[in-house]
Each structure stands twice: as structure tokens, then as C-alpha cells.
Write a structure and sequence with these properties.
The longest helix is centred in the middle third of the chain and has 20 residues. This protein folds into two domains: 145 residues, Rossmann fold (3-Layer(aba) Sandwich), CATH 3.40.50; 163 residues, Aminopeptidase, CATH 3.40.630. The chain is 37% helix and 21% strand. It starts with 6 loop residues before the first strand and ends with a strand. It is of the alpha/beta class.
């Protein structure tokens, strides 16, 4: 079975539309309701369907940015608009280097990307220089593009969560945050400007599909990569000797969705954190520290004195290890010694 992918990286000329916009002009490209332009409209609609299921779209095009963006912004038959793309590289640079930059900007692995380009040379270059990226052989006939996209095994139809449908917009708002950060000299002042709010839920069974999804997909900030099904998590919610926690993050630009999950087993005066994970899209905001402070506060309210934490090393979860090393002494910490939440994050306890 092919591995699920997160992002489709797309060429523009002769891929999203027919012709070369720099030579044919905005009105001369093939993008219409009649052949041959209708093939590209159908392909864009198929891509939009995947976008609605949470697949990220990105642009990697050797082009004049003004020409290409004019099509995205003004062409009446464009299905995909600028806001549908989480990131873009429209320049004359090496496409392999562009893909590396896109992966870094989106904070995803190269092995999470699929590159679609009509040009055989570009496909060969990316295969040779960034071999982790999947590069299918796009059909020569654009009339086959949409069917070909649906045939790819990288985007299975699963239950869709709110976060899936939000994902494209999440990356757009992240670009807005990066632009705002440039106006601040200190990282703390920037974080204060975001007005971050962390809403924490305890033993709430209304979000089981997303929590299960987090256990399956989260790699970097995950203390023990053990996927859990919805029924397994529901059993812990019902267990009086366990606590299931999750948290949703919002800020001045929008809603990040549910980004944190913890599973705690109660062992007398010890709360043992068996699962703790966080979405990579909120790295660098101190959210994990606020979440730990919330756990410690509840532990103190219920008379617990110690927090312990599990850790199983994987090739990708170094950020989780760094968090444990910072906050736990050999995987244990006194509840009273857990630092308070960062000053720039407001914590709200929704059902506690």
C-alpha cells in the first residue's frame, strides 16, 4: 500500500492551464469550458476536491511571477485561486531547490510531497535531486490529467475532520503571521500580538476522530508513536483511572484547530503521561508549555504530587525529547515545580 501524502506540488504552464502564459498572454492560454481548455478546468476541479479533503497544494513554476499571478487572480475560468495554495515558488530557480524550500516552509517532509509537472526534464531533475519526493509520470494528453490524479494511491478517502477541511486556510493564515512577525524586533512581542488562546478539554468524547488522527499522523512532537483508534480513546475517556486531554488553539488570525492531545493514567499521587503529542504547525509558540502547566494545575487540584512521562525514541521525535529534557528530571517532575504558562498565552478550561 502506498504511503499517504500531504502535499501536491504543481507546475503551472501546460499543467494547470494549456500553453505558456509568458508567451501566449492571459487571454491566449487554454482554460475554458470547451476542448482543449476544459481538460485543465477538470484537472483543477479534481485538485480542488483533494484540497477540500485536506491535501495541501503548492506551486513550483519557472515563470514571471506577475504573469502567473495574473492568471490565478483574474482569469475567469481558474478554479484554483491564489488562496488555495499553501506556498508558492514562481521564479527561474532550480525546481529541485524550490521543492526543498517549499518543504521547509510548510514544515513537512519531502516524502510527504507529490510533484506534478508536464515537463519530462523537470520530472527527471526532481527525481535525481530530491529522491524522497514522489514524481509520477503525468500523461501526455491533458484530457487524462483528472482521471490520472484520481488514480494515484496517495490520497485515500478517509473520514474528514474539521482540521482536514481547514488545512489549506491554516497555511494561508500562517503566511500572514510570518509577515506580521517582521514588524517586531522580539519574538515575545510578536507572540503577544497574536493574542493566543488555548482552550483545554478534559474527558470530552466529541473530538475522537481528530484525536485518533493526531496519534496516527504526528511524528515530531510525540513521546510515543502509538496510533489509537476512536474506540480505544473513548475507553480511556470512560475510565475513572485515566484522563484524556486535548486543546484547541486560536489567535488573532484564526483557528489552528485541535493541536494537542494527552493521555494520563492516574496512579495514586502520580499522574503518568502515557501519550503527549502536538501538531507541528504550532511549534515555536510555547503552546506545549502552556498545556503542561494546565495538566499540572489539574493534577494539583486532584491531590497529585508528581507527573511522570513515557518516552520512546523514534527517528523523528527529537522535539519531544527536547521538551522532556527541559521539563522533566529523568522523566519525572514535581507538580509544584512545573513552570507557569507563558505570559502571552491565555488558557481557557472549557469543561473543567
Amino acid at each position: 500500500m502506498a504511503a499517504t501524502k500531504k502535499c501536491i506540488v504543481l507546475d503551472l504552464d501546460n499543467t494547470l492551464w494549456g500553453g505558456v502564459v509568458g508567451e501566449d498572454g492571459l487571454e491566449g492560454i487554454q482554460l475554458s469550458l470547451k476542448a482543449p481548455g476544459n481538460s485543465f478546468v477538470a484537472f483543477q476541479q479534481a485538485l480542488l476536491d483533494l484540497y477540500g479533503r485536506g491535501v495541501l497544494l503548492a506551486i513550483n513554476s519557472r515563470n514571471n511571477p506577475d504573469d502567473a499571478l495574473a492568471v490565478l487572480r483574474t482569469h475567469p475560468n481558474m478554479i484554483l485561486k491564489e488562496q488555495h495554495f499553501a506556498a508558492q515558488r514562481i521564479n527561474w530557480n532550480d525546481k529541485a531547490e524550490n521543492i526543498k524550500e517549499l518543504a521547509e516552509e510548510l514544515n513537512i517532509g519531502l516524502d510527504s510531497m507529490v510533484f506534478l509537472d508536464d515537463d519530462l526534464t523537470n520530472r527527471a531533475l526532481v527525481r535525481a535531486m530530491v529522491s524522497d519526493v514522489e514524481v509520477p509520470e503525468l500523461p501526455q494528453d491533458p484530457a487524462e490529467y483528472a482521471r490520472f490524479l484520481h488514480s494515484l494511491p496517495y490520497f485515500p478517502v478517509n473520514a474528514t475532520t474539521d482540521e482536514d477541511t481547514m488545512r489549506g486556510n491554516l497555511y494561508v493564515t500562517e503566511r500572514l503571521r510570518r509577515e506580521q512577525e517582521k514588524a517586531y524586533e522580539s519574538k515575545e512581542d510578536f507572540l503577544k500580538s497574536l493574542r493566543l488562546e488555548l482552550t483545554v478539554y478534559e474527558d470530552d468524547a466529541s473530538c475522537l476522530p481528530r484525536l485518533s488522527q493526531l496519534t496516527e499522523k504526528t511524528n515530531q512532537f510525540n513521546i510515543d508513536k502509538q496510533p489509537l483508534g476512536e474506540e480505544e480513546i473513548a475507553a480511556y475517556v470512560a475510565n475513572p483511572n485515566a484522563r484524556v486531554w486535548y486543546a484547541r488553539l486560536t489567535d488573532a488570525f484564526g483557528d489552528y484547530g485541535v493541536v494537542l492531545f494527552a493521555l494520563v493514567e492516574l496512579q495514586g499521587g502520580i499522574w503518568h503521561t502515557r501519550q503527549l503529542l502536538m501538531s507541528c504547525r504550532v511549534f515555536g509558540r510555547g503552546v506545549e508549555d502552556a498545556f503542561l502547566a494546565a495538566l499540572a494545575k489539574r493534577a494539583a487540584q486532584e491531590g497529585a504530587e508528581t507527573l511522570t512521562i513515557a518516552y520512546t525514541e523514534t527517528p523523528k521525535n527529537i522535539p519531544a525529547k527536547e521538551f522532556i529534557d527541559k521539563n522533566f528530571n529523568t522523566q519525572s517532575v514535581a507538580v509544584a515545580d512545573v513552570p507557569p504558562s507563558p505570559a502571552w498565552i491565555q488558557t481557557i478550561y472549557e469543561n473543567i
